Recover the amino acids of this structure.
């Protein structure tokens, strides 16, 4: 019996480690991709600081296409891309590629909606001061929407935890993989329950942290 | 015309033109629909003046002032600020020109997540001023707008008047030649409005900054402007010194606007009743306003003056009043008396002969 718990414990720890790794790296890269996407989507809008109908439409369409593919299909569909980038199609590293394809455009949309909330009047005041588009992004759009951006990243992180569980199915490892392999396929209910419990705690923790940080930075 | 000049209210400094707008047109087009917001506006603002544009909502005031720094692109026409043809500017040139033109807004437009200090320092950073120098300048600016103690407060912790003071400090940071005010007091209560107007007046006087202010409140014009243009339906329909506007408004719109502030309409029943003497409306302005002019009149001429209606206010800092008096006495004496009043710089108008 003791043996069983010890084994389960070490499996859990390893899976947790894999999930945290997968999600952390994916969210960082996704944010790096999604932030510029969102910024471009906003500033190229009609009447905004770098209005450009075609860029806006093209980018919007691209994001919509990527976002309409179910994750499980996306994962399979981009196998060649994954192989080209990380050299393999299985394992934690390989799972990061579809996760970024999934979360990047998602974050792009979240960033877009955050930046859209920024008061037009403030942007105008900065235009009147002679600020350049880059200065407006840096001095107005980002600082004014920081709390909302943090909440967006929090939402995306939670989403990534869910998606990473599916990525586990193609050998990505992680908590989701553990729950599926032992809990679902081998009917070891206790493994499934404990894994889910860990996931719940993880999600709760991340959301609480995000809310706290956003609240701290909001003064408006 | 000559008599109006001697009222002593500054009509420009007689200096050079700072803002010159020629035949400005602005058409907003969306789909099939077009709105012609400006229909050939001409305007000239002298250096050092406080120039007001007054008009009802939708007259095109905001469109006009937003064209001056090209927040709105004119459909046609020319705008020169300090000799520079603004309408021809693009990119970095436009941005540099904008640094010489400050602007404040009805809704203040401050960064809500940044402190007062940060809000005021930003334009200095944008202009490439070093951190230390910029910090010192912010201290001076906050002192100027009387907010020394609020450097670390966030806009959300300030009253409307204080927010507008921050916006003024921010607009002045780069030492602009012009300050554009788009309904800068329209979101404020009357008392706060007054304090902001006093601040603008002080800034104009001490720093010599030219101010172009648009408003739908005639009170604003009366408090601080030297020159005024009345706008209606995309056009300037009347223009002149504020004194001219108040003492002899020409258009119906101007009359309605001045009346709203002065309450100078003579009650109807006063005119309908028959009076023994002559009913005379006296408009007086400047230092005379406080002279005991009616008692002097009675001392010099065998004429008695009975005040039936009166109203006194200030145009900028100059007292301005309207009296309706009934003058009784011999016809010739009354005539001489009225002439005497005219000589004293009053404007008289006989409403009813006795
Ligand atoms: N961005 C815009 N797009 C379309 N119509 C506008 C825009 N701005 C102003 N207008 C229209 O132009 C006219 C003048 O508006 P505005 O300049 O704001 O007047 P005011 O400031 O005197 O109220 C109004 O009919 C208004 O609806
Ligand atoms: Mg307006």
């Amino acid at each position: 019996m003791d043996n069983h718990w010890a084994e389960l414990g070490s499996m859990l720890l390893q899976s947790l480690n894999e999930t945290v790794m997968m999600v952390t790296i994916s969210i960082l890269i996704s944010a790096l991709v999604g932030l510029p996407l969102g910024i471009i989507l906003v500033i190229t809008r009609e009447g905004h600081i770098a209005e450009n109908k075609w860029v806006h439409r093209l980018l919007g369409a691209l994001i919509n296409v990527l976002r309409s593919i179910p994750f499980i299909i996306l994962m399979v569909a981009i196998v060649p891309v994954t192989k080209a980038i990380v050299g393999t199609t299985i394992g934690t590293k390989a799972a990061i590629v579809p996760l970024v394809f999934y979360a990047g455009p998602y974050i792009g949309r979240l960033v877009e909606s955050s930046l859209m909330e920024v008061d037009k009047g403030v942007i105008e005041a900065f235009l009147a001061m002679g600020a350049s588009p880059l200065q407006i992004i840096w001095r107005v759009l980002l600082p004014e929407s920081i709390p909302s951006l943090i909440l967006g990243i929090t939402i995306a992180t939670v989403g990534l935890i869910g998606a990473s569980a599916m990525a586990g199915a193609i050998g990505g490892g992680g908590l989701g993989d553990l729950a599926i392999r032992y809990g679902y396929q081998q009917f070891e209910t206790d493994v499934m329950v404990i894994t889910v419990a860990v996931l719940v705690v993880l999600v709760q923790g991340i959301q609480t942290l995000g809310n706290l940080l956003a609240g701290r930075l909001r003064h408006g | 015309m000559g008599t109006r000049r001697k009222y002593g209210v500054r009509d420009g400094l007689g200096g050079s033109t700072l803002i010159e707008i020629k035949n400005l047109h602005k058409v907003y087009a969306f789909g099939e629909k077009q709105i012609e917001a400006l229909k050939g506006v001409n305007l000239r603002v002298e250096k050092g003046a406080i120039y007001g544009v007054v008009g009802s909502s939708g007259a095109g005031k905001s469109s006009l002032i937003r064209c001056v720094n090209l927040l709105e692109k004119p459909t046609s026409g020319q705008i020169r600020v300090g000799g520079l043809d603004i309408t021809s500017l693009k990119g970095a040139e436009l941005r540099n020109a904008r640094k010489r033109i400050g602007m404040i807004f009805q809704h203040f437009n401050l960064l809500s997540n940044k402190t007062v200090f940060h809000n005021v320092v930003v334009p200095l950073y944008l202009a490439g001023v070093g951190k230390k120098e910029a910090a010192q300048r912010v201290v001076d600016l906050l002192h100027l707008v009387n907010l020394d103690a609020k450097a670390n407060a966030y806009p959300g912790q300030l009253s409307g008047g204080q927010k507008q003071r921050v916006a003024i400090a921010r607009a002045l940071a780069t030492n602009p030649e012009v300050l554009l005010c788009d309904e800068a007091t329209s979101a404020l209560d009357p008392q706060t409005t007054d304090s902001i107007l006093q601040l603008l007046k002080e800034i104009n006087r001490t720093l010599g900054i030219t101010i172009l202010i648009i408003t739908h409140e005639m009170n604003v014009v009366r408090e601080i402007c030297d020159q005024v243009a009345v706008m209606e339906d995309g056009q300037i329909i009347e223009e002149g010194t504020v004194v001219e506007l108040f003492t002899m408004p020409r258009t119906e719109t101007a009359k309605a606007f001045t009346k709203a502030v002065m309450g100078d309409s003579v009650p109807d029943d006063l005119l309908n009743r028959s009076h023994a003497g002559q009913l005379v409306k006296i408009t007086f302005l400047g230092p005379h306003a406080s002279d005991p002019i009616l008692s002097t009149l009675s001392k010099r001429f065998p004429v008695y003056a009975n005040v039936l209606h009166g109203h006194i206010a200030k145009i900028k800092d100059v007292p301005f009043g309207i009296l309706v008096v009934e003058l009784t006495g011999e016809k010739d004496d009354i005539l001489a008396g009225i002439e005497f009043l005219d000589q004293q710089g009053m404007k008289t108008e006989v409403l009813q002969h006795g």
